[in-house]
Amino acid sequence: MKHSITLKLVLTLCVLTGCTYISQGFFDSSDRGAKTSAQDQFGDSAKTIVYLNQNWSPSDSLWFYNTTQGSNLMPYKLFLHLEQAHSTELFRSDANMRRFRYLAQSASNKNPDALPVGFVRDTYQNKEYIGLTCAGCHTAQINYQGVGIRIDGAPAYADMESFMLELEQALTATIETPTKFHRLAKNILGHNKQEASQEIHAELITTRDQLRAYNTANKPLNNGQEIRYGYGRLDAFGRIYNRILAHLTPEDPTNANPANAPVNYPQLWDTPQHDFVQWNAISGNASIGALGRNVGEVMGVFATMDLSPQPGNKGYNTSMDIMNLIRLEKHIRKLTSPKWPEQFPKVDEKLAKKGMGVYLKFRCHDCHELINSRDPNRLITAELTSSELLGTDTQTLKNALNYRGKSGYFKGLPIDADDPNTRIIGEDALVLDLVNEAGRGGLVQPSLDAPWGIRGPLRLAELIYSVKTNPVENRVRELNFAPNTDQSVYFDAFKARPLNGIWATAPYLHNGSIPSLYELFLPKCTQQQAQKNSDQCRPYRFTLGSREFDPKKVGFVSKDATKYPGLFIFDTSLPGNGNQGHEYVTGKTPIIMKGPGGKPLLDENGNPKMELQTPITDEERWALVEFLKTL
Asked: CA separation (Å) from 618 to 358, 513, 605?
């Protein structure tokens, strides 16, 4: 009896505090179940896997990998037994998933089918689905001399776009090829009952059609030209927007915008400690803002949603697991940035010390604050710079701010549900407003899977706990605006963050258009330099796909596409792929002049005074790279 009471007490405390260990076990292996790999199609291999000290135990990592958030990509049994379109090998085989650069895992108690990192079995309304977890986009592996270094919270290198397209192809091939279908049905059923086989066939068609509609809506077109994402990038905003539009007007497949602005997956460390997040700082963390951010993410990665108004509902029925989202956010608060691995060549301390002087000389710290990354009480204020002043590619900003769509079920609702006197959503609306309403409705509506009598109290307790555990407050945002920029347009700007762990987040700039830190501090190529493939400027084209790391330049090795034809060729001349801007150290991007207290100096018209810096020398450039390895 005493043991029973103790167990109940422990479980209760876990619910309230976000305890993760009970669900995963106390004795998880130090390699977190990571699988080694022989040489693959890009010449990469990892004979051993190591993890860095990021303040997470093996149980912490595995809980993060295997915790559902309410993502329902497709029926679980179909995914488990689906073959590749042109092979009898399973679609989910380690070799195939590695092609998309997902990370292979061994079977475990919480992952009995040995799904890759970021894939999990989810249950909603008594149906099993394959879903995505946070780890699918925020866990990385870097290879160096046969050692695979796993980094929690780092940007994934996954090619989700190709994964989704080939998944659709595999479903189509199974529908159209009798031998493929019979193998699938037999593996699922264990027998050949005709009626049950027909149900599976119908489910395949439904799943394929849903996936086809998703892929069609999200085709990355720009003025008729298809701009593929490649490894390590995703147009998350575009795809979230289109999922909401599709659920608001389910009979209108044309209600979509091109998802043509892929960006790097951002790193997760320090995210809960920021006041504003996302590349464009569009999400605040204050109050339940962090929860709202995570709700938007789940809606984008295949939460089941019904956005139509239902009698008696205050919001909208979804599969989102709000309690797990709260626990995940709290879990990430513990995560710290990785330190330069001992497997790499040692940092040149003398050169790094000189590099710190370079960092201060060029005022990098004005935007990229130097913080104590191990301070559990750290709070970070976002530094925003207008896109006009920064000069980097603006495709993702324009899309997030300007995309519109048919409001469908939301027509006539107030923009702010708490203030009915605010602007009303029209037939044609900013998609950002529609996403906000969908997120609000998903938060306030209790899950259909919760016992009826406690749905309301549970949801109230979840929301109160979310606010209580988020100490970040709203702050007035001071933007570094270019002259004559409309300062009311808050989100036409990019957010800078502290650079601790920056070495583990290649490629660089928000759209991944620069392969290494060294090349980040070079100027953009002129047309003449690009034609000569000059090494005195940022690469005009380079390849992505290899995990092999270059610890000197700090980035992934750009291998020869003629030798490894599956590599992705990143072309910076394509729309959304531009590698211009953020050229402060080269003396090409102007910087705001500041006076006492760091306040911008203004001219007689009230505009900030600007200046260009003396271009960096190559010796200083290498020193700066060496310093950044130490953060």
From this structure: 12, 21, 38
